[in-house]
Amino acid sequence: MSWNDIINNNLIGSGNVSKAAILGFDGAVWAKSDNFNISVEEAVAAGKAFTALDALLGTGLRLEGQKFLVLNADEDRVIGKQGGSGFFIYKTTKAVIIAIYEKGLQPEMCSKTTGALADYFKGIGY
């Protein structure tokens, strides 16, 4: 199974995630959903998000040119929101998984789906 298959089947295919990406800590895009227009700068910021958690709480994070307020940030997960949309970024051993939910999707289910994939990655050393 490819990285794109994981995005499309496990995240987007769940019906709980609108857009998703798997990035290296350096911001390199391993895979993303076709509808996720993340810029290089945004990918680098997301990949490095866990190195400056306190700063994120004050500055927020941009994804697809939209600034999200960061509500919570710890060593495993960053949570952001903007209007009826939001994101979860989960850290694994070697990557970060970004999942965006948009209006009509439940944030809790987006988090649960993405967190389960992050746990699976950690279990296999990724």
TrEMBL record:
Similarity section: Belongs to the profilin family.
Subunit-structure text: Occurs in many kinds of cells as a complex with monomeric actin in a 1:1 ratio.
GO molecular function, one term: actin monomer binding
One of the Pfam families matching this protein, by short name: Profilin
Keyword Cytoplasm tagged: yes
Taxonomic lineage from the root: Eukaryota, Metazoa, Ecdysozoa, Nematoda, Chromadorea
Keyword vocabulary terms for this entry: Actin-binding, Cytoplasm, Cytoskeleton
InterPro entries xref list: PFN, PFN_euk, PFN_sf
Protein name as annotated: Profilin
Main location, first listed in the record: cytoplasm
Gene Ontology cellular-component terms listed: cell cortex; cytoskeleton
Keyword Cytoplasm carried by entry: yes
Localization of this protein: Cytoplasm, Cytoskeleton
